[in-house]
Design goal:
The chain has 184 residues and is α+β, with helices and mostly antiparallel strands. A hairpin with a 5-residue loop joins strand 5 and strand 6. The longest helix is centred in the middle third of the chain and has 29 residues. It is elongated, with a radius of gyration of 23 Å.
Length: 184
């Protein structure tokens, strides 16, 4: 059972309760205490300590892989470089224009994807069983980055994060996935 300021929390998502009592923890401002749904086998604040809010990547919003487990959580025209049919040669202006069009066709979507990945939405591979049965190890989850830029995370939301000391990893590498327990 988890208590917040002496009040028992209703946690219907806990799939495997912890067998031992963890005790009391005071959470510093700017930090969060996180717990996995599978308390009996969870990589969370009980072993790693509280987590700085700056370590949070975003909120997990869906499971995308494997395909049989997909679910939500809580939610330019290309032109041929050869020109028109039957035309073998193009003058330098047309070739340059065609190259620029192809470059823009590739560069604009790549830049848009990078901006979306950096600021709005990314993916994370779940590592371990700390959130059974919500997630299984190696599930791919969609992660909303924008949500926590607009407002603070709420208790009970599923978040992805990187614990300090795990090394600098990309946001799509294995992440710690936990439920937020206490926010200051």
């Amino acid at each position: 059972m988890t208590y917040l300021n002496g009040q028992a929390l209703q946690e219907e998502y806990v799939t495997h309760p912890a067998q031992e009592d963890f005790g009391s923890v005071t959470v510093e401002p700017g930090h969060v205490f996180v717990l996995g749904d599978n308390r009996a086998n969870s990589h969370d604040s009980r072993t790693e300590g509280t987590l700085a809010e700056s370590s949070i990547v975003g909120r997990a919003v869906c499971v995308l892989f494997p395909f049989d487990q997909i679910k939500t959580l809580n939610a330019p025209q290309n032109k041929s470089a050869c020109g028109r049919k039957g035309k073998r040669h193009m003058n330098k202006e047309k070739v340059l224009k065609e190259i620029v069009e192809w470059a823009l066709t590739i560069i604009i979507p790549v830049l848009a994807a990078l901006l979306i990945h950096t600021y709005l939405f990314t993916f994370a591979r779940v590592d371990g069983g700390s959130m059974l049965d919500t997630f299984h190890s190696n599930n791919i989850t969609g992660v909303s980055r924008l949500e926590f830029r607009i407002h603070d995370p709420q208790r009970g939301q599923i978040i992805t994060c990187h614990y300090p000391g795990e090394g600098k990893r990309s946001s799509s590498s294995a992440s710690s996935v936990c439920r937020a327990k206490r926010w200051n």
